[in-house]
Amino acid sequence: MAKFVYKMQSILDIKYKLETQAKSEYSIAMADLQSEIVKLDCIYADIQKYEDKLRENSSGILNILEMKAVNDAIAYKKEEAEAQKIVIKRAEKRVDRAKAKLNEVMVDRKTHEKLREKAFAEFLRETSEQEMKEVDEVVSFQYNNQDAGGN
Question: Domain holding 15: CATH number?
Answer without folding.
Answer: 1.10.287
